[in-house]
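quick one before i forget lol
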Amino acid sequence: MQLCLVISLLNAEREVYSLFDSIVAYGRGCQVIVWDGCSTDSTVKRVTQYSKTLVNMDIKVGLDTGIYDAWNKALAHCDSSWVMFLGAGDRLVKPLILDLPDASREIYSLGVVARNSGVNLSRKMIRNLWRAPWFGIPSPNPGTVYPRQALLQAGGFDARYKIAGDYEMQLRLLGSGYKINRSFVNIVAVEFGSEGISSQRSRIPESLHEMATALRSAGNLGGYIFMEIRAFTAQLKHLVLKS
């Protein structure tokens, strides 16, 4: 298998049908590794229904400390050259037929459209990065195709992060010499769900603070200060709206 889809789930019974129906339609040739963090609803039962159709799917169940710990645990079962991470609220909207090399020092960014908005987040990220290198995420995670070897050499995701661990990983890989290849950015292959933790308005200040921490770790002091100001402003706005 050239591409592995890694999916972490926890009590996601309402979203899994849409996600896995899209994988059957557009990603059947991929390896699929599912990590369920001991759901107490029918998530695992519903995903298991796809086992006969998705013959390359492996379902693992176990405790984890969060999404990035779950991804690391799932990654240990992946044997494909390339990896893409999907959330329960995401779905594929185009076949994942990509001509990728067996080894590369590049990270590939696919087009990702925000649900109900029609905005190609990948292209929006490019505009933000042109304005300032710390303004946006280099590549929206649901449409980012990572070399598996790069993730392993980096020691996996930093599980101390709860929201922005993918941002930290991309900064870490870029700092070690990897480049982002945007040749597929106009191929909108993934629809980004609005149910994820990073999309929750109440968690925006925390997300921005984690991004600031990642920038500081990467040695980007200007970006760190800028992002902490954004986090502080977002926290004030949240408190005002809450009151």
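fyi The helical segments are 16-26, 43-48, 67-75, 121-131, 148-153, 165-175, 204-217, 221-242.
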